[in-house]
Design a protein that fits this description.
Elements lengths: L7 E8 L2 E9 L7 H15 L3 E6 L19 H11 L3 E2 L17 E5 L5 E9 L6 E7 L12 E3 L5 H9 L3 H4 L5 H19 L1 E3 L14 H20 L2 H31 L5 H11 L20 H17 L1
Parallel strand pairs: 2-3
Antiparallel strand pairs: 1-2, 3-5, 4-5, 6-7, 8-9
Helix pairs in contact: 1-2, 3-5, 6-7
GO molecular function: catalytic activity
InterPro entries: Endo/exonu/phosph_ase_sf, Endo/exonuclease/phosphatase
Keywords: Coiled coil
Length: about 325
């Protein structure tokens, strides 16, 4: 990452074998060409990492972050900058001024960028930093280490042979299987037979390492338009010719229009099937909620904290049992 742009620092925050990319960037207001290098950083970071936190002084003085607009033309580096954020599905959280100088207009120069809007909470602008005219920004970074597991086999239930699955289950003599069994024994028998049918009738897929699931709304046409836009951008970076930038703008506009259309069509499909096939709705909801809350470690009767999901379940079960038997 540092080979692309010098005025940037990067580190990886690693926990439980999961990684968040942390970055800090400075762009000189007099160096307009550096914007292209910073966009290259965004492209590389979004390609390599699922979880990103980037902060810094970007000196994009005329961007209105409330509506993501700039008074300059599409050829201007500020317009190219926020379009690059959109292209990489990155979210900029600051919309209030962060730089204050007497007799000058306040500007939003210091930015906070992540891949998920829900990653940032309680963002505040505090007092100026020392003798600087830049304010101190504080915020909470919310992150759950439930990333996409890559390289691990998964079941593709959309390819399940439900007819044969159902027939197999119906042919089981459940009465004799559950005979003389308590509830735990019956649950184990059911679970074992269910897992066996899953292995037989549900297709497995092996995602490539580093591969993220595609958005539910994505279509083949969308992918083609996005690839065309990316190729046009790579060509412009190589040549820096105005004609290639014009070609990129055409490809970008076509891709953006196609993405908006695909999202709208998929949301119509979700709405039409919400009552009859609710899985479409809940799959879409799940895809929009990236930062998932989890059960924190609980205090055991011994005074120690739980270290696994099984221990958490045991503590909760014992507590609820005590409530109902008290």
């Amino acid at each position: 990452m540092n080979s692309i742009y010098d005025d940037a620092s990067w580190c990886n925050w690693v926990k439980d074998n999961k990684t968040v990319l942390l970055g800090s960037i400075y762009r000189s207001p007099s160096d307009q060409n550096s914007c292209m290098n910073i966009i290259g950083l965004f492209n590389e970071a979004a390609r390599l990492y699922n979880n990103i936190l980037i902060t810094g002084d970007f000196n994009m003085r005329d961007i209105d972050w409330n509506c993501w607009t700039t008074p300059h033309s599409e050829d201007h580096y500020e317009h190219t900058f926020f379009e690059a954020l959109r292209d990489n599905f990155l979210y900029q959280h600051k919309d209030k001024p962060t730089r204050f100088r007497e007799n000058q207009t306040c500007r939003t120069l210091d930015l906070v960028i992540t891949k998920d809007e829900s990653n940032i909470d309680n963002i505040n602008i505090d007092a100026l930093l020392g003798l600087s005219d830049h304010a101190t920004i504080t915020f909470d970074f919310l992150y759950s280490f439930n990333e996409y597991e890559t390289g691990k086999s998964k079941y593709k239930y959309s390819k399940c042979d439900f007819k044969r699955f159902s027939e197999d289950f119906n042919n089981i003599d459940w009465d004799s299987s559950f005979d003389d069994k308590d509830i735990s024994g019956m649950l184990k028998i059911f679970s074992d037979k269910y897992k066996k049918c899953i292995e037989v009738y549900v297709q497995k897929i092996n995602p490539k390492p580093g591969c993220q699931p595609k958005p539910l709304w994505i279509t083949f046409e969308c992918l083609s338009k996005i690839k065309r836009k990316q190729k046009a951008w790579s060509r412009y970076l190589a040549t820096r010719r105005a004609v290639d930038f014009d070609f990129y703008k055409v490809a970008r506009n076509e891709a953006n229009e196609n993405v908006r259309k695909a999202k709208k069509e998929y949301e119509k499909l979700v709405a039409s099937k919400a009552k009859t096939e609710p899985k479409y709705f809940w799959s879409y909801v799940k895809s929009k909620v990236k930062s998932k809350s989890s059960v924190s470690n609980l205090m055991k009767p011994s005074g120690n904290l739980t270290t696994s999901d099984k221990e958490k379940a045991t503590v909760l079960n014992d507590f609820f049992t005590s409530v109902f038997t008290a």
